[in-house]
Amino acid sequence: MHFKKTTFKNGLRLVTAPMKDTNTATVIVAVAAGSKYETKNLNGLSHFLEHMMFKGTKKRPKTKDIAQALDAVGGEFNAFTSEESTAYYAKVDKAHVGLAVDVVSDIFLNSKIEAKEIEKERGVILQEINMYEDTPMAAVQEEFEHLLYGDQPAGWKVIGTKENIKRVTRKNFLDYRAKLYNAENTVVCVAGNFGEEGEEKVIRDVKKIFSKMKKGGVNGKVKTVERQSGPNIKIKHKKTDQVHLILGFRGYGMFHPDRYALALLANILGGTMSSRLFLSVRERQGLAYYVKAGTEEYSDCGYFSVRAGVDTDRRKIEKTVKTILAEVKKTLAKGVTAKELQSAKDNLRGRMALTLESSDEVASYFAGQELARREIKTPEQILAKIEKISRDDILKVAKDVFANEKLNLAFIGPIEDKVFLEKILAL
After folding, report:
1. What mean pLDDT comes out for the span 239-266?
2. Given this model, what pLDDT does residue 195 score?
């Protein structure tokens, strides 16, 4: 996959990725500013700021002015905040790539962050927090990460706390944006069909618009500390009709050489409808509607996890946990078969091909790589690394990651006592 990286004098990085076989183009502006860059009393500010950036600029004074500019051409636009980044994007017909660059850059560079809008948006964020609280299938990941990392940035919620949302001031927003939203901390990516504009014109336009951004510097974040000596359990008591659980192990960050082997192992155990856990937990025993395994990779930490939604009956919860642990133990004892490994490689290759058909996914892929790693590996390069992974590599990673001192279980449901799980949570 072809791409071109351009670094401007102020340190801003632009990645252009032409795609001739699509009629769309996506513009994304990503900045290294997320919950891991926050202090405890400002936890949630990154996400709140993301909302505020859509509330009007000098050129487009109101939210509706921003929306109408892209709605008028059938464009899609949004933003997202994670632990380590915030990104703003627009996807449009190839004839309107110039408009997308103009609107997204206007939001990113010129948002007014007005005090009256902050007051209105507080209520929106508080309702978003309530929405997540009422969605235990999603909220259980936050509980799991808090179990892993505790009271440090890696263990805080991206959305923050209600207390913080209620008290942050306009000055907090402006200071935070001035500190982190600088050129060296930002990546712009334009992917897709550039139409008549052409790649060179896109580069010139981005250079002209973003040249006024201050240079700033790359802002560090607190290094994640990991401490654990044995299995841990965290229960969040909530009246639900289903227990949502995550059983997982401390794993690898995005720079670890064995991260691809762990991803393959997750695929074999619970990445597909023919995976070991899907067959053992759902198909053979009917214990869960959903059960899946995966990995999460951050810059300085990561984990392997199995998630499932099960009955609130303690016997079924216990049976599900035992079944998951049994599959883990089987992997430790016997590894994986050559057929399983090849199927996992083929599955990842196919998923990547399907995902990277669209301009928005390609833009997100390149922007994410450049922002997090300051280096871009093409899909072909990543797949070449994956193809070299052997059964011995998988077994080595399993023995490293699947250990009692890395084992954790978090769940949300109408259960208060965890003694019955403490007795069985071990390898």
Report:
1. 98
2. 84
**Burial zone of 161 (CB within 10 Å; 0-12 exposed, 13-18 middle, 19+ buried):** middle
Residue 39 CB coordination number (10 Å): 11
Nearest Cα neighbor of 146 from 46, 235, 85 is 235
In this structure, CATH architecture of domain 232-422? 2-Layer Sandwich (3.30)
For 88, list phi and psi in degrees, rounded to 5: -125, 135
Predicted confidence band of residue 38 (pLDDT cuts 50, 70, 90): very high
Start-to-end Cα distance in the chain: 43
Every domain of the chain and the residues it spans: 4-210, 232-422
Domains 4-210 and 232-422 share a fold: yes
Residue 50 catalytic? Answer: yes
Which is the catalytic residue, given 50, 142, 197, 327?
50
- CA 128, CA 136: separation in Å to the nearest integer? 13
**Nearest 5°: CA angle at 310, between 395 and 228?**
45
HSE, side-chain direction, 13 A CA sphere, residue 112: 15
Quote the distance between the C-alpha of residue 72 and its chain's center.
30
Query: For residue 127, what are the contacts with CB-CB under 8 A and spacing of at least 6?
Result: none
Give 229's contacts (C-beta < 8 A, 6+ positions apart).
405
- Strand 243-250 and strand 407-413: the pairing is antiparallel
- Tell if the pTM clears 0.85, that is, is over it: yes
Side-by-side strand order, sheet with 407-413: 232-237, 407-413, 243-250, 302-310, 288-297
- Side-chain half-sphere exposure of 359, counting CA atoms within 13 A: 30
Pairwise CA distance, residues 423 & 273, whole Å: 30
What are the backbone angles phi and psi of residue 191, rounded to the nearest 5°? -130, 145
**Tens digits of residue pLDDT in 340-362:** 999 999 999 999 999 999 999 99
CATH class of 4-210: alpha beta
Structure tokens at 352: 């990547």
